[in-house]
Amino acid sequence: MTACISSKERINGFSKLGLLIINLDIEEKESLFRRANNQNSWFTEVSMESALSGLSLLLEKENIEKWLSEYSIPESTSPKKVGILMAGNIPGVGFHDLMCVLISGNIAVVKLSSSDSFFSKWLIDRLVEVAPEFEKFILIEEMLKGMDAYIATGSDNSARYFNYYFGKYPSIIRANRTSIAILTGEESDNELDKLGLDIFLYFGLGCRNVSKIFVKNVNQLQHFLDVMEKYNWVANNHKYLNNYEYNKSIYLVNREPHLDNGFLLMKESKDLVSPIGVLFYEVYSSEAELSKLFQANESKIQCVVGDPEKYPDAIKFGEAQYPKPWDYADRVDTMKFLLALD
To answer: Average pLDDT of 172-186?
Structure first.
């Protein structure tokens, strides 16, 4: 029988991990970055620094306590085994699911992504280091058979596979999503600069990355590209550069109109998801038009980035990649799902 951990111990364990990340020794950080990058060359120093910053924010004790104040977390449970199939598109992307499972008092049975096994395993090891009581609540497995529930994240194709195998169990299954930004034309250069983080962090590989912007006027685009110039470091990554050059050649051969600043292509499109190295744009005429479009595509949009004073549900520029514990993927309350398993 697995020993029970009090809710206070669970919270303290994760907040200790947050402090460990903030105070991480330079040599250990360099070793982590080097070895994770050797496994996945998308995981650059900038990407992993950003991931650690986001995790330290997620793990702030004040944020955890605010998040959990909305729930009745039992002090003792009959823990369920919850299989977590983690994605590997950005460093540590499945950590929030692990956190939810453990804080809800359940056992996390984790299948790590082959693209992110080193970074995520490092996080798990450090969590057990600062909170040894979690050790018996975390299992890393290659096969996730016979679980009480499942949380699986992947592409549209893999989501169909997950539904086939796990749909008969209590489950949360996530497919492809993307994020968009709304520009009114009144944004300051500082706001546009921050939007660059939402676009370029993780090279556009995350569901919280902005892959399309809505503008009032095409005249906004040239100034926007000028402000984006500081993010030309993305072209230093050979995978990103290969994608950019491939898409550029396609547009040139097909004579498709586009803008190009040397590392980012901008193309007008009704589609939401742009290829790596490309940012789609669309001109809108009214807020009502936007609202109708967003409602029609609700199942595909992860975040809307913009001015919250104009769009109440929008995330501020520069904050899309730094979710709080209560910012659930796909707006599905993972903690509520887990607590209902009992």
So the answer is: 95
